[in-house]
Amino acid sequence: xxxxxxxxxxxxxxxxxxxxxxxxxxxxxxxxxxxxxxxxxxxxxxxxxxxxxxxxxxxxxxxxxxxxxxxxxxxxxxxxxxxxxxxxxxxxxxxxxxxxxxxxxxxxxxxxxxxxxxxxxxxxxxxxxxxxxxxxxxxxxxxxxxxxxxxxxxxxxxxxxxxxxxxxxxxxxxxxxxxxxxxxxxxxxxxxxxxxxxxxxxxxxxxxxxxxxxxxxxxxxxxxxxxxxxxxxxxxxxxxxxxxxxxxxxxxxxxxxxxxxxxxxxxxxxxxxxxxxxxxxxxxxxxxxxxxxxxxxxxxxxxxxxxxxxxxxxxxxxxxxxxxxxxxxxxxxxxxxxxxxxxxxxxxxxxxxxxxxxxxxxxxxxxxxxxxxxxxxxxxxxxxxxxxxxxxxxxxxxxxxxxxxxxxxxxxxxxxxxxxxxxxxxxxxxxxxxxxxxxxxxxxxxxxxxxxxxxxxxxxxxxxxxxxxxxxxxxxxxxxxxxxxxxxxxxxxxxxxxxxxxxxxxxxxxxx
Length: 512
Known about the structure:
Blueprint: E1 2-11, E2 14-25, E3 31-35, H1 40-43, H2 45-55, E4 64-70, H3 82-92, E5 104-106, E6 109-110, E7 116-117, H4 122-129, E8 135-139, H5 143-146, E9 153-157, H6 160-167, H7 199-211, E10 215-218, H8 225-230, H9 241-253, E11 269-270, H10 278-282, E12 283-284, E13 289-290, H11 292-295, E14 300-303, H12 311-315, H13 318-323, E15 325-330, E16 333-338, E17 342-347, H14 366-373, H15 378-382, E18 386-389, H16 395-398, H17 407-424, H18 439-445, H19 450-463, H20 467-484, H21 491-499
Parallel strand pairs: 3-4, 5-8, 8-9, 10-17, 10-18, 11-14, 14-17
Antiparallel strand pairs: 1-2, 2-4, 6-7, 12-13, 15-16
């Protein structure tokens, strides 16, 4: 007999339909044979299926069993096909009617005792089935996650026996639990009120948060660069429901949903180590998986010690930062992942860290200094809107009574500026904040007065700004004006924006 069971695989962020065909025949030696490009994890399912079926009080057929995963030209991986293969064996061997499988999609890993274990990548599959009039049988641990997909009947399964009873109409489905919402993030209990001094850096971070701009902080070790950046999520506005669903889908596909939670509501903050490879940052793998730049979608990607990253990895960020998405190409096809991030980076001014520091002398030679700075290409730096030098905190500031302005106060200004931008770009598809404006949108929304054009012209001449850097200065000036609540970009706004291009100024000489 032949049975067909609907299932699905995750390719990129898309659920791809997979049909599990099971044939149980009397001819040939008994055994289980799999075809259809299964990976080793699927091939190892033979023993899991046999034990799970027997321990669930069903009979394992003493026949030749052939399992085909169609379409045959799509490589399959993971243990999600355990449940559909087991159900297919039971249906093909006549232990329950195959007609009960109509319009039903099954996913789940089986334990040896028949329990159905949770899986990564359930949400992309659920979203691909939304509105198609099907029901999705998933592990009970993934039911709340799958239920985030609208217009889809989700059925949680505890074990193989329960799945068969449900399909036969002998047992109702368990109710789906409410989605467990993740905490706001690892830095939800910190506050900018704890930061002493660094007024210029705090202002730059506020501007970056308000306009979704990329930011680079340059300063000697111990001045608080990491402390400042770790508090950035506390001044970002909350995610919308659509953004939350998109972020949750990416983390689901990567198998990185927080343990015990089915929905991510706090903006992502990714902080990869500087030894991360290009595929780790950009995404990759035989079957492509999202990298750090996609896991930080709608949030912050923090690259500390920027020049220590592999240059090829950094150059790979250029296209995602510009387009808001990244395409990973492999011989079997390509996958596109969203990558709308705020890139925030930090670095020392030189290899020893003390170039330009009046309190400690730099010991780097000019060649060492130039080699260190050359690790970052001009095109990459052009994509960073704000570049700011962070000086050491003075003793008086460190010991002053009281702290700085709270994150809540800063966030209220950021949210107001974001509301202005949403209204501005409501007729501009794909653009939500000033940092995403195209050249055409810059020309439309960043018009300058005669005095402003003169200030920007002098800056372009003196600093040698590229056309891309010119546009980024205007975007930052637009954000500063939004924070001030003014419709026009004033000369003061433009002058402040130009000050955030410190790497376009003459290079700081080392003391070596």
